[in-house]
Amino acid sequence: MEVKFFTPTREYAEKKDEFDKAIQSVLNSGNFIMGRQVTDFEDAIKEYTGAKYAVSVASGTDALVITSDILGFKNGREVITSPFTFLASTSCIAKGCAKPVFVDIDEDTFNIDAEKIEEKINANTVGILPIHLFSQMSNMDKIMDLASRNHLRVLEDAAEAFGMKWKGKNSALYRHSGTIGDMGIFSFFPTKTLGGYGDGGMIVTNDARLAEMAKMFRVHGASKKYHYDYLGYNSRLDTIQAAVLSVKLKYIDEAIEKRAKVSDWYKERLNDCDYIKIPDIKGEQKPVYYVFNILAQNRDELAAYLKQNNIGTSIYYPIPLHLQKCFDYLGHKKGDFPVAEKVSKEILALPIYPEITEDEVDFVCTAIKNFYKK
Ligand SMILES: *Cc1c(COP(=O)(O)O)cnc(C)c1O
């Protein structure tokens, strides 16, 4: 048996007619940039997430760069974030010449340790950028409380967090990731929970002025054609991607449920394995298993063994950002963020997608147990 880490082809095969029809309709219309399907998809995202405004762009990375620019994450101001994430969550801060200020992660959730944020806030701090990673959201109660007491902007990197919802202690309602802070972003990179057939991203906000700016920024800063109010970007979601994503959004609840079922299969089978730790979900929230991670003893040997057995795995993230060459100038050294560094050596992502079968999960778990029996 071979178990791929990720495959989009099973879903395409299942719904081929629907995807083909959606793509064909764009080809027939010839409206490849900002076609009707783009607005339709933005409306569907508003409806699903409860955000007042949704502005699609070319990628999650662009969404982060544009929102960082709009929120004033630039010119030497400080933005507090986690070093245990994908590069784009921090490069968006550094690109505008703001200073990323890292806070270590919680060892159970791998998200920013919200208890350690306050000590990093000073007169130069302009914002907090939490990343909702892998399966669960950061502690938004604490983050929003700190932000309102210190007049900070909050940008939620919800690139991996489509479908995740936070209730917290003080609310009666579950609110979708990305809609709690000033602005939030999603990525539609093919592997993501809501993944397209190429790159794509979305900015969400409940603030009319911020939404207006995002709309201008994606078309070079133009308020109307050839009238440039800002120095913006060229970053739009392709109409073809919007058409594909609209099909996927129709089935997203089903896909999220299947991911939850797969994560239960893993938990049932791996719970009694002493060499493995499965992360906890913390806080009152609805998780979504975009990634299923374990912390594993002898992680690199285990990954090599699984590879030999035709099982794909992945490591998110092997090197925390404070130790990346591009951030040398921040002056960090090994040991500065010990939890992130420890987790980066033990974490391993197992195959998870709605179409994976129970037999395949069995095969993965048996291989893991066989490795530790050796
Ligand atoms: C995927 C991802 C991004 C970037 O999204 P792209 O659409 O690939 O540009 C940003 N942040 C996090 C946490 C991600 O996982």
UniProtKB/TrEMBL annotation:
<dbReference type="InterPro" id="IPR000653">
    <property type="entry name" value="DegT/StrS_aminotransferase"/>
</dbReference>
<dbReference type="GO" id="GO:0008483">
    <property type="term" value="F:transaminase activity"/>
</dbReference>
<keyword id="KW-0808">Transferase</keyword>
<dbReference type="InterPro" id="IPR015422">
    <property type="entry name" value="PyrdxlP-dep_Trfase_small"/>
</dbReference>
<dbReference type="Pfam" id="PF01041">
    <property type="entry name" value="DegT_DnrJ_EryC1"/>
</dbReference>
<dbReference type="GO" id="GO:0030170">
    <property type="term" value="F:pyridoxal phosphate binding"/>
</dbReference>
<keyword id="KW-0032">Aminotransferase</keyword>
<dbReference type="InterPro" id="IPR015424">
    <property type="entry name" value="PyrdxlP-dep_Trfase"/>
</dbReference>
<keyword id="KW-0663">Pyridoxal phosphate</keyword>
<feature type="modified residue" description="N6-(pyridoxal phosphate)lysine">
    <location>
        <position position="192"/>
    </location>
</feature>
<dbReference type="InterPro" id="IPR015421">
    <property type="entry name" value="PyrdxlP-dep_Trfase_major"/>
</dbReference>
<protein>
    <submittedName>
        <fullName>UDP-2-acetamido-2-deoxy-3-oxo-D-glucuronate aminotransferase</fullName>
        <ecNumber>2.6.1.98</ecNumber>
    </submittedName>
</protein>
<comment type="similarity">
    <text>Belongs to the DegT/DnrJ/EryC1 family.</text>
</comment>
<feature type="active site" description="Proton acceptor">
    <location>
        <position position="192"/>
    </location>
</feature>
<dbReference type="GO" id="GO:0000271">
    <property type="term" value="P:polysaccharide biosynthetic process"/>
</dbReference>
